[in-house]
Structure formats: structure tokens, C-alpha cells
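Fresh eyes needed here. Kindly weigh in on this sequence plus C-alpha cells:
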Amino acid sequence: METFHAAINTVFSVGADPALQQQATQWLNAFAATPEAWEAALLVLNDASAPGNVSFFAANTLLNKSRTEWGKVPQDKRGTLQHAVR
């Protein structure tokens, strides 16, 4: 989870090294494609102390995953995800 937060902070950091931002973006895109991204994004959204940029990225990750991977989510997990984002 620390790597998730650090990568998001690097991407949104004003004045950060562009090469590091690109590397962080690539890592985040790869991570977003994993099944673990569902849980990571939900954990961030349920953390009231999460910075706004981290929460934004987590919400966007859930939106994109819901649009593209909802059919891959087991039926028994769908209710939990739906309840978590309401």
C-alpha cells in the first residue's frame, strides 16, 4: 500500500523528475490492472485521512475497473464491492 501511495504522490508532485513521474505512472497502470487494485482502491476510499490525490486516483481506478472488468468479478464478491462504493 505504501508503494501505491508513493507512486500517486510522485505522479501528482509538482516539480518532480519527469522520468520518475513516468516510472510511477507505468507502475500505477500495471498495478491498476491487477486483482489487488480492487482492494487497494477500496481501502484508500475508506481511509478518511487519505490525501485527495490518492483518493481521486483510487476512485478513478474503481471506475475504470468496474467498466472493463466487472464481468471477471465473482458473483459472490459483487455485492461487497457495490456496497463498499455507495
Summary: The chain has one domain: 2-84. The helical segments are 2-12, 18-32, 36-45, 52-69, 75-84. The longest helix spans residues 52-69.
